[in-house]
Amino acid sequence: MRKVLERLYLGLLLIFMYAPIITLIVLSFNSSKSRAKWGGFTLEWYVNLLSDEAVASALINTLSIAVLATIISTIIGTVSCIAMIGLNKKLRSFIMSITNIPMINADIVTGISLMLLFRFLHISSGFTTILLAHITFNIPFVMLSVMPRIKNMNVYVYEAALDLGAAPLYAFYKTVLPDLWPGIVSGALMAFTMSLDDFIITYFTKGSGFETLSTLIYNEVKRGIQPEIYALSAIIFVVVLTLLMLVYRVPAKKNKD
Amino acid sequence: MGKDLITLEHISKSYDGQLILDDLNLSIYENSFVTLLGPSGCGKTTTLRIIGGFETPDKGRVIFDGKDITNLSPNKRQLNTVFQKYALFTHMTVAENIAFGLKIKNKSDSYIKDKIKYALKLVNLEGYENRSPESLSGGQQQRIAIARAIVNEPKVLLLDEPLGALDLKMRQDMQYELKRLKEELGITFIYVTHDQEEALTMSDHIVVMNQGYIQQEGSPEKIYNEPENAFVADFIGDSNIIRSTMIRDELVEILGAKFACVDKGFGENKPVDVVIRPEDIELVSPENGTLKGVVTDLTFKGVHYEMDVEVGGRELLVHSTKLSPVGTHVGINVDPYNIQIMNVPESEDEEAISETI
Amino acid sequence: MKLFKNKNTAPLLSSPYMAWALIFILVPLGMVIYYGFTTEDGFFTFENIATIAKPGYMKALIRSIRLALISTLVCLLLAYPLGMILSSMKLTRNTYIVTLFILPMWMNFLLRTLTWMTLLEGKGVINTVLESLHLPTINIINTPAAIVLGMVYNFLPFMILPIYNSLSKIDENVINAARDLGADSLQTFLKITFPLSLPGVLSGITMVFIPALTTFAISSMLGGSKILLIGNIIEQEFTQLYDWHLGSGLSIVLMIFIFINMIIEALSGNQGGK
Lengths: 257, 357, 274
Fold this sequence. Notes:
The complex is a heterotrimer.
Chain A: H1 2-27, H2 44-50, H3 53-85, H4 89-104, H5 107-120, H6 127-151, H7 155-163, H8 168-197, H9 200-205, H10 213-223, H11 227-256
Helix pairs in contact in A: 1-11, 2-11, 3-6, 3-8, 4-6, 6-8, 7-8
Chain B: E1 4-15, E2 18-29, E3 33-37, H1 44-52, E4 59-64, E5 67-68, E6 79-82, H2 94-104, H3 109-122, H4 138-150, E7 156-160, H5 168-185, E8 188-193, H6 196-202, E9 205-210, E10 213-218, H7 220-225, H8 230-235, E11 240-248, E12 251-254, E13 257-260, E14 270-276, E15 281-284, E16 291-300, E17 305-311, E18 314-320, E19 329-334, E20 340-343, H9 348-355
Parallel strand pairs in B: 3-8, 3-9, 6-7, 7-8
Antiparallel strand pairs in B: 1-2, 1-4, 4-5, 9-10, 11-12, 11-14, 12-13, 14-20, 15-19, 16-17, 16-19, 17-18
Helix pairs in contact in B: 2-3, 2-4, 3-4
Chain C: H1 2-5, H2 9-36, H3 47-50, H4 55-88, H5 91-102, H6 109-120, H7 125-132, H8 144-169, H9 172-180, H10 185-214, H11 217-222, H12 230-239, H13 244-273
Helix pairs in contact in C: 2-13, 4-8, 4-10, 6-8, 8-10, 9-10, 10-13, 12-13
């Protein structure tokens, strides 16, 4: 009896989570512009979407910002984590609490604070400002996932490599980096998805005329939902789903070995 | 010894189709210190959890003080458990941990206060009331776990590998501590461990288990001196287990030489396994020995020397206080009382174990 | 660890990030505070912050707090039983199912909100289905209820994850110990399970309450243009009315709430967790 109730509860919550997404995907194939009626199957919205230049440029913006922000924040985050071992404890925890500010603070405050900064520095809004903002909120995710790895690292392996005649950089590359690698990869993945998903901070730092997918969707929705948006949602959902499945399957396989 | 307090009748239990306990029968006397001993996966912890009420057997009954408690939930049983890794409540102080069971039973504040004081004194941790469990060492946490259990005045205390997480020195101290506690409290202890030394040191009664079966039960002396099968002989202490032939009652042929022994009833010219403890092998000059051999390895162990002696292609382990350098030709004698005869194992499980020896 | 403990390389390696944190975290926050406490002419003032007491603003703030509290509570009530069910399941299966519950979190948050616009509209999917079944239709789009629904849908995974994590970390034997000492199921839950899961509950509350309190997208999409939350007002000050001083002042008020929330979490976290 208890088992049945538990299953039922799980099922209902899963329906709550997924039914809206499935509805959206179904609507993306609906030839009727009305959302209430099924007018037959069509790929029209997908075709329209592909020929839509605004969507294409927003997509390119989103991806290039996410990729660049991920690479830069991963490098800065990892190097800082390694460097922080050498600092004393007080300074280290001070830096970490500053690092955590963008994670704890409301996105809207982070967004407007960066906007004020960029205006003050006269950096014209657009690609650069969004990129800087994304790097800023990505670094904490990288550091939080690399830091535990560093703390658990076996320092003797590095010393053993030196002892066996390896040059420090070679020893680092051969012993420390492999140890940190899982942390770096998961930090980078976190950063990438955070970048893709961000709306609020991008919204305040983008300036006019420059759009990412998130801001484009927000503008479109305010004007009234076009069926092309459903097609876009469906594509994003399937891509995210596939990416996540890959990410979750890779570590699972490694653990088994 | 006293009357039966707990009886397990025909207990079977399996997980995911794997049989953990198979038709287990066991009686536990009142006021005894009983140890369930065996390698991991032998079913000892499952047996303890069935007694504690954390598992329900698939078949069989658990009788406690004459009553069937097989399906009684743990909170209604008159016994308490000291868990592996202590399982202390980390969000409470030491005093709150100890008071937990008493508060549930709505005891008065003054009673609880007295009990906490008494229990902390009993485990030598007076003044630790307001400490957090996480600030204590492993040994101290262990004592708190024991104090938390015994304030409820259980008739039986179940201990699930309680010393497993401690270092060697601490473990030895706690062994004496537990023995003393058992004497002071005058209740039954059921103790689970894979450490044979722990079992021999503390118990009145040892139950040796393997692969869901009881291999042998009895006093520590009996288990050590008269192992009933190769598994027990090998698991408890070092031993030489040699496939031999029983010529007739009280005469056995070991490695081609005839030895007098005290065992009877194994038939004539039947294959048997012989167990000889390394300290029971007497090294003499070659002409005085029943068997002749050569010392091939020698290690100083403090109290004694440990030697390998080759006899007809077979290595025997010998403990002796007298030094015989490698290469020495020696004779071997064994006192008839120190030759333990066992039936050749029939089950495949036992076979597999004796062949690796 | 010569390479890492070297007194010269450590500050050298960490200095780029320290500079970054200074320029992009601390200075911007300083600017919000500067703008919040000054007039357009650069004079010190409390007026920007005091504006929150004016009727329209106060109403929006109270509405925001109310809706955020309701959403947080609903998320907690939905997520806690789920966390208990998930943590009691066998490990091989539950990682899979936990992933299933967390997955929508990775889907663009505007799209998640958009789906509810589509579902809830006057002639949206839900009402069409209800009509065809001859059931009464529901009209909650552009009401606070729709905003709460949107918040719960968006932020539920943020509540599930920490609660599940803290529950699955509890040693099974600790629960057994409570039972062993005579506690029944309810007593065990109240005295052991819940207190031990408190850190997870608190971090879940923070992770839902703060974005819910400060959102402007959910309210503008599901609440129409009539139901303003404090987030909407701040957004308008910056993007439409260009009153950065007032916008910053109101942001400071928001930060005070975030700060209070953090202190509460830290205090009760210390009590419950250690």
